[in-house]
Amino acid sequence: MSQEAQKPEPKFERGKDKVVSGYRRHILTEVAQKNHERADLLEKKRKILEKLSPVERDMLEKIDMELNALRKEE
To answer: 15: how many CB neighbours lie within 10 A of its CB?
Structure first.
């Protein structure tokens, strides 16, 4: 009887867990891809900002702050 208590879970439940972990893996892959794309865009932005004058950088920062404020309102 002690062997019955130690039996592994039925196969259909383990299969269900594999589906969930596969879905999680899919989501994590999407998140990683978006983070990579975001990092590429930030690097491009940094390179462009290096070429701008200080006055142009300040103007761009103000515009970014206004855009962020508008996004938060939506």
So the answer is: 9
Q: How far apart are CA 52 and CA 61, in angstroms?
A: 12
Please, what are the averages of pLDDT over each run of 10 residues along the chain (74 residues)? Answer: 53 54 83 93 92 92 92 85
Is 55 contained in some domain? yes
Answer whether 60's CB lies under 8 Å from 49's CB: yes
Contact between residue 57 and residue 49 where contact means Cβ atoms under 8 Å apart = yes
Helix (H, G, I), strand (E, B), or coil: what is residue 72? helix
Cα–Cα nearest to 52, from 63, 65, 67: 63
Structural domain contains residue 4: no
